[in-house]
Design brief:
Blueprint (H helix, E strand, L loop, with lengths): L1 E6 L13 H10 L6 H20 L4 H11 L2 E7 L6 E2 L1 H13 L7 E2 L3 E2 L5 H11 L3 H21 L13 H13 L3 H13 L15 H21 L15 H4 L7 E6 L24 H13 L9 E8 L1 H6 L16 H4 L3 H11 L10 H4 L2 H7 L2 E5 L1 H8 L10 E7 L4 E6 L14 H12 L5 H12 L6 H5 L18
Parallel strand pairs: 7-8
Antiparallel strand pairs: 1-6, 2-3, 4-5, 7-9, 9-10
Length: 499
């Protein structure tokens, strides 16, 4: 990897575009380096994973609305939308499928200086591949770039510290991935990256307080903007430049300010794009920083059943990272995180709620665990309100460690019972994590798809899709166009809007 200093440059300074971060990313996108076999294997896994969680959300209100918007924009050859046979304009397919993938917060993640769900790159890159008639080899290369750039940016530049939503890294990464897919000249991809970043910087209020349905739409919007930015750049249109480093650019006014310095590492010429291997998927439908806590709660349910009864519990304190404490823990100071009437989007960002339910049930379900009647159960509410989080310096250090062998997303639980006894236990990573108790492999991804597709897709449709996905690098353009699923029954019609 090559490291570059990224800082603000005044307009009066001659700052060649070849030294700008957007250009360096465009050069990575244009590098025709082969994709390593283990990276191809993981890309196949994540295509399956994305489809699994999209199918599971296909009847949920935000996905119905997004699909309705997309279907109002038919196009030929166009791109496919999860669940139906219609073809639509690629930016609208990226939009609808992006919402379906993100709705349940159930796909892959990478956490470092910034949060990210790098699987969000797949819907826009796949949509353009289908529309442009690209085969599996090009699609794999595009996805490898999307993951690489988003993860490299997440390692180097914190957005959340300035209350900027993490999708500001996704717009540029998706644009870069599409540039790789299409084999665009770096000059074109450079302009698309600048436009994609410029149009996808927004505040983190979409993930604060009473969280709305926009949480699922935000990354889909970034993917849609990336597709449109590539289209404009291909037509010769230009973007604000330098977008990160300009005097009135992103660093100077949205991030650490005019004196800031960032070190961004990107693959050098001829160096394989391997960042996808640093990411990890979810076994459970909840924010990633809750995954390990669910697994610990399931274990404690069997080993210490007394913890499930609030009558036995004085308090439970989860010692965890700064991020977990402040984003999904009591450190967020969001009363909604303890509200039994809160939205599903809010509950999946409340580790006190998640830990309470998993502790009582010994399991986690993407539907039942969030049901209003489950959240309102009196004994659950009583236990839930006895659970708090604290920012533990050691778990924060491990969260930020660049050594993947010690990087951790869990913590230590300390329970004080009403009889004065204590229960203490800890977990570093989720069971499904590459270093966890049961790391996810191809069979687990396929099993997740079959489980979530059951009752939504016909059995032969499930196996057809899995068969295609597992041959991803070999697919012809026509097969890439059929890399979609069609629901067994008619899907709900979308509410009426403008279109």
């Amino acid at each position: 990897m090559k490291s570059f200093e990224v800082r603000t440059h005044p307009s009066s300074e001659a700052f060649p575009r070849e030294e700008q971060l957007a250009w360096r990313i465009a050069e990575v996108a244009a590098d025709p380096v082969d994709v390593a076999p283990e990276v191809v294997e993981m890309i196949v896994n994540r295509v399956i994973d994305n489809a699994a969680v999209a199918v599971a959300s296909i009847g949920r209100a935000p996905v119905i609305a997004a699909r309705g918007q997309a279907l109002a924009h038919p196009f030929s050859p166009g791109s496919s939308v999860f669940g139906v046979t219609d073809r639509v304009s690629p930016e609208w397919a990226a939009w609808a499928n992006g919402v379906a993938v993100r709705e349940l917060d159930y796909h892959d993640t990478f956490l470092a200086a910034e949060y990210s769900h790098p699987g969000d790159n797949i819907p826009p890159i796949l949509a353009v591949a289908q529309h442009a008639g690209r085969g599996g080899t090009d699609l794999v290369r595009g996805i490898a770039t999307g993951y690489e750039i988003q993860i490299d940016l997440a390692k180097a530049i914190s957005l959340h510290a300035h209350k900027i939503d993490h999708v500001a890294h996704l717009g540029p990464s998706a644009a870069a991935g599409i540039g790789t897919l299409l084999g665009l000249d770096p000059g074109v991809t450079f302009q698309a990256i600048g436009q994609a970043l410029h149009t996808t910087t927004a505040t983190r209020q979409s993930r604060k307080g009473e969280i709305s349905t926009w949480k699922a739409y935000a990354p889909a919007f970034a993917g849609k903007m990336a597709v449109e930015a590539v289209d404009r750049a291909m037509r010769g249109q230009t973007s604000p430049s330098p977008i990160w480093e300009g005097e009135d650019g992103v660093i100077a006014w949205l991030l650490d300010g005019p004196e800031a310095r960032y070190e961004v590492s990107l693959p050098g010429a001829g160096e394989a794009k391997r960042a996808i291997l640093d990411s990890f998927t979810k076994e459970h439908s909840a924010e990633y920083q809750a995954q390990a806590w669910i697994d610990l709660a399931r274990r404690l349910h069997a080993e210490h059943p007394e913890l499930a009864d609030p009558a036995n519990v004085d308090r439970i304190v989860l010692h965890t990272s700064h991020h977990t404490h402040n984003v999904i823990g009591s450190g967020a100071n969001d009363p909604q995180k303890y509200d039994p009437a809160a939205s599903r989007e809010t509950l999946d960002h409340s580790v006190p709620y998640i830990f309470a339910v998993a502790l009582q049930d010994g399991a986690w379900d993407h539907v039942a665990s969030y049901a209003p009647e489950r959240a309102a159960r009196p004994d659950t509410v009583a236990l839930w309100r006895r659970i708090t989080t604290v920012d533990d310096p050691e778990w924060t250090r491990r969260y930020h460690s660049n050594d993947l062998r010690e990087k951790a997303f869990g913590g230590r639980m300390e329970a004080v019972l009403t009889d004065g006894s204590t229960v203490v236990d800890e977990i570093a990573v989720a069971d499904a994590h590459p270093l966890g108790a049961r790391p996810f492999a191809r069979a687990d991804y396929a099993a997740k798809f079959r489980m979530l597709a059951d009752g939504v897709l016909a059995a032969d449709e499930i196996e057809r899709f899995l068969g295609l996905a597992e041959r991803l690098p070999e697919l012809t353009p026509d097969e890439v166009r059929s890399l979609n699923v069609v629901a067994e029954s008619a899907l709900p019609a979308a509410p009426k809007g403008l279109f």
